[in-house]
Specification:
The protein is an alpha+beta fold. It has 6 helices and 9 strands, in the order H-H-E-H-E-H-E-E-E-E-E-E-E-H-H. The chain has a 3-stranded antiparallel beta sheet with strand order 1-7-2, with helices on one face. Helix 3 packs antiparallel against helix 5 and helix 5 packs across helix 6.
Length: 218
Amino acid sequence: GVEAPKGAAPQPEDRDRLDASPVRVLDTTAAESMMEAIDSAKADRDTLGGIIEVLAYDVPAGLGSYTQWDRRLDGLLAQAILSIPAIKGVEVGDAYEQASVRGSDAHDEIIPGYGRATNRAGGVEGGTSNGQPIRVRAAMKPLPTLMQPLASVDVATGQTVPALRERSDVCAVPAAAVVAEQMVAIILAQEAQRAFGGATVADMQAAANAYRRRLTEF
């Protein structure tokens, strides 16, 4: 994933730079450190996990539900991300940081025009999108297939034996980031279709544009 300024609009060249990076980050210094860590783990015949961040821009406010538990946008995003193999945790916005500070430092103040000065909520409030960039982070564990196997048990004898040694990637985080982007896109597309309907993409776009115009009237 890519770490971008919170609430900042994406630049067209950022996507090209992201795709060109072996570890899918914009910060070249961080990328070098990450690749060094991966090379070191490979030399030690070990594996690495990491953190993925997905950003979705221009998401209309109101996707999801604040009344139905199974349609909350953050819940849908979490389920989709956690369905990716080896993903063990999900964070929307600054969730873990918010858990350790007071409410006065955790929330996004409303400014004229009904925007937010910050995006600590990650673009989701009360189960619905609030018009700010959606920001979802996922924790991926290291792959369990190691070149230096951990202990396991032979099911035939019940004795302790080394786990089977198979081919394994050292770090699958960059690949999982691509999958995570698509899972977020699927959820947002489904909720947009639910909200705006239409028999064709053009119909749905027209309904979405009319909805956006209504929002600006407030």
